[in-house]
Amino acid sequence: MTRIENETYNTRRFWITIPELESFDFIPGQFVTLDLPIHEKPNKRWRSYSIASWPDGTNTIELLIVLLEGGAGTTYLFNEIYEGSELVLRGPQGVFTLPDPIEKDLYFICTGTGIAPFRSMIHHIQLHNVPHKNIYLLFGTREKKDLLYKDEMMAMEQEVDQFKYIPTLSREKWEGCCGYVHAIYENLVHEKMNGDGQLPPSGFFLCGWKNMIDEAKQRIQQLGFDRKSIHQELYG
Ligand SMILES: Cc1cc2nc3c(=O)[nH]c(=O)nc-3n(C[C@H](O)[C@H](O)[C@H](O)COP(=O)(O)OP(=O)(O)OC[C@H]3O[C@@H](n4cnc5c(N)ncnc54)[C@H](O)[C@@H]3O)c2cc1C
Fold first, then answer.
1. Which of 35, 47, 190, 201 can bridge 104 by disulfide, Cβ–Cβ 3.0-4.6 Å?
2. Is beta strand 135-141 parallel, antiparallel or unpaired with respect to 105-111?
């Protein structure tokens, strides 16, 4: 562990350097699995985390982790791990990655630390000038104090063409969007359909916890999209 910083009151950024490798190569959207000494049985010790940084040719990656009250793994990470601590990890793993080429509008839909793989993807797109259509990052959380990477995403919105960052709060009124993420992509799709009634070519990437993902899958299919246009990374 090379560096730890608080992102919010309950969420931390952890930077991990893999000394055995010169460069830790991965595809944006992939995750690593930590083997934490929290149980005797190996398969009860594994906790997966999306890589929040982007491939940059170095051997350091960033993870974004929220403390879950009573959670064995996150309690260990928040209380027992310091800069200089050693961790065992596997990876990169996973197939939650960008289409290549990007030929449709992309909806990145997430709650909480589910923003991590999308941060990796959008930086990668910027860094390599990856051709793309509209990209909407819909980030849902409860209150202003729960917003993650807010200033950075606002800056990316200025820097990356056709990239829109749309944070929404479900429990606080503010200058931005309110309520859950679902109404936002539904409205965007409806606006695009107003022209000719055709479904706009779109790919939906969902990341976060079960409630949001289950509801989004249902609503996106109700809009008329195929199951194949939906990709998901379920955190639990
Ligand atoms: C592929 C993948 C990538 C992941 N990436 C991230 C990531 O980037 N950042 C991150 O913070 N977590 C991520 N997770 C979740 C992470 O692996 C752990 O499940 C989480 O940190 C809780 O671990 P714990 O040991 O503290 O809790 P446990 O003791 O294992 O959790 C107890 C229960 O709480 C549920 N739970 C855990 N977190 C929440 C939550 N926030 N809201 C509601 N229910 C919850 C779990 O499903 C479990 O049933 C990811 C999971 C997967 C499978």
1. 201
2. parallel
Cα 77 to averaged position of ligand 1 atoms, centre (Å): 12
pTM above the 0.85 mark?
yes
Distance 11 CA to ligand 1 centre (A): 12
Q: Name the residue at shortest CA distance from atom 43 of ligand 1.
A: 209
Residue of 10, 39, 49, 210 with the most ligand 1 atoms within 8 Å of its CB, for mutation: 49
Among residues 127, 129, 126, 128, which one has the least CA distance to residue 137?
A: 126
- What whole-number distance in Å separates Cα of residue 75 and Cα of residue 160? 37
Which of the four pLDDT bands, split at 50, 70 and 90, describes residue 227? very high
What number does the ligand 1 atom closest to the CA of 73 have?
A: 25
Query: Is the CB of residue 65 less than 8 Å from the CB of residue 113?
Result: yes
Angstrom distance (rounded) from CA 156 to CA 175: 19
pLDDT digit string (tens) for 98-142?
Answer: 999 999 999 999 999 999 999 999 999 999 999 999 999 999 999
The rounded Å distance from CA 235 to ligand 1 centre is 5
Phi, psi of 216 (to 5 degrees): -65, -45
pLDDT in tens, 169-182: 999 999 999 999 99
